[in-house]
Structures are given as structure tokens and as C-alpha cells.
What does this fold into?
Amino acid sequence: METRLLILNPDPVFEDRALSIFDMIDGVETRIARTLSEAITILIEENFDAFVVEEEPTVAIEQATNVRQHFPSLRILCLVPCKIDKEQAAAIDQQALAIIVTTQRESRLASLLKTFIGSLDSTGSTAAEGIDPCHSLIGNLNQFSAAEILQMSCLSQRSGRFTFKSGRGNSEIYLQHGAVRHAVFGELEGESAVAEIFRWRQGRFYFEEGIISHEQTVDRPWAHLLIDNLQKLDETLELVSV
Amino acid sequence: MKDRQLETKLRLIAVQLDSWKKLHDLITYGLDKAKPIISAEQERQFTDLRGQLLQETEFVLRELGILGELSGKAMNVLNRASSVRGVRDLTGEETRRLEADWNAVFTKLGVTQGQLKGRRKQLAAQNPFSYYFQRVLRRRAVAA
It folds into this structure.
């Protein structure tokens, strides 16, 4: 299974130290974007195991923070040419970013990059099987977005469990009388998991009537979640047009 | 096994092809008289793209060993297409030449990319030992 990386590098021809290392790592497929808007367009359309930003520290952290807000579960690595200050280190920590300084010995840099690649969890890269034809609602996210499906189920006051399966992994959303009660995607729970699933455009889903979660991680009405997430999606799309 | 130079060439050619495709999209838009509005954003994109190609083309073509064959044609395209609006104002003959030169660059880059991918596939099937062993066998015998 290949590890897919999206690399944001404004000058991939002349500033290619890290790129040439990625080229030589087995099982790694890279795609290069030169601008943030191009990178976000690609991230909306395709699945990647990680996003790599290669830039000066200030720019790299700003761009990574931007991407983090719109793709909360994505692994993000900043490749910077010099050491970062305390303020930047705090931002890195807060946004759960990884950072590597590229101006070190090539063998050392290669080893750090390989370690990062090795740390990427590839379990979510294939859509798992297991859809039972007796589930009350089955479908494909190419035709209906997760937002549309949830809207329909919430309006009809359903209770049960939605399972979404895509290249990004599997996720579950539990409804109770038309309200989202619990959502989980990987390590994300609650509203951040809903926000992540909201933008999925590929994959499949099914609904199992009557399965209720004891855990409650979402306590806002569906309408509020819908408005917030649609706004977030609009902001993501705005970044594309910048 | 992977060859570093080959992988670099493949990356450079992918980046270069991507830029030429984007340039073509904007040129096509500029030539389409049914689309009267050319936005400042499109002009900015065009200038950025043209700037990148002007910087990178010569270097990439030299790395790929096709500089002599393509340099003139690539420069013709970049000189004639100075802006999206400028493309719209080209005469019929100039437009034909622009398209022919763009096509020549794109075709050669595409063919080269295919050849390099073929080489990568061959290499992937070899292990380092057999690769160097074959290289030794291919060496000419030295006369005593």
C-alpha cells in the first residue's frame, strides 16, 4: 500500500532537497502543489496520508494552521530551513503539527523523513467491506454528500447509527430522535469528527436503525452543526479561490 | 531498485508538464471569444505561470537532455503569449504558430516522460546486484 503525500512547495525545481529524498523512499507517492489554494483544491478532491509544507517557518506554520482548521484529522509536517522560536514552537504544538529542519546532514534528514512516513497510519487507506444489504439505508457519497444524508435523517427524527466508509477511514455518527448524539472518526470525537465527515465526497455509508450510543459527545442541535459546518466548508472553498 | 537521477527527472518532468497544461488552459480561455471577461485574477495566474516557466524551462530541458530540441519552441510560446489579453489579440497565423509550438513542447515532454517511466519499470524489476553485474558484463573488453 502506497503512502500518499501532498507537498506544498512553491519552488519544486530549485528547492528540492526534501523532495529528492521523498523520491527515493519506497512506497511513497508524492503530489506537488505550488500554492495553498491549489493544495486545498487537491485535498478536497483526493485522499492523502499527510500534507507536507516546505517553506520559511512563519509561512509554513501559517499555511499549516490554515489547512489544520479545514482538515482536522490530516497529518501535517512542516519542513523549515532554520530553527523556530518559542512562539512558533507553541503554534506547532497547538495545531498538532510535526516539524523537521531541512538544513541538516542529508542522511539525518532522510532518516527523519523516513521516520515520519513510518509513523503514518495506513490502516485507513482502504475502504473496509462489511455493508449488509439488510441495513435500512445504504448509499454512495458520490451521489449524496454526508451533509445531505444527515439532514434527511435528522428531519425524519431517526435514531440509529450511520457508518461512513471511505479511503480516509471509517467513522460513525449516532443519532437519537433526529439529533446527533455521538460522532467518532479515528481519534476525533464529537463536533470535530462531524466536521471531518461533513466534507467527505467519496466513500459509502449505511444506516442501522435503533442502535443508540450511551456516550454523548455532541450536544448542539443539528441545525447549528449544519450551519457551522456549511460555513466552514464555504471558508475552505474561499481559500481555494484566493 | 530506484535510480536517484531518474526519479529526479521524472519529478521535474511532471512539474514541467503540469505548468504547460495550466498555461494551455489559460491560452485556450484567452482564445475563446465566447468568453469575453478576462479577470485580473486570471491575468495574475498567467503571469505567475509564465514566470515559473521562464525560470525553470531551460534548467529542466537541460536536465532531460532535450534543451536543443525544445528551447526555441518553448521560448516562442512564452514570448508570444505575454498575457491572456495578448493571446486574444494574436492574428490567426500567430495563433496557429503558438498552438503548434505548444504542441511540440507538450508532445516531446510526454514522450520523454513515457520513456523515463519505462526505464523506472525496468529498474524496479532489478535488484542492485543484478544491475551492477549486467553493467560489468556490458563493459567492453580492454585489449592487452
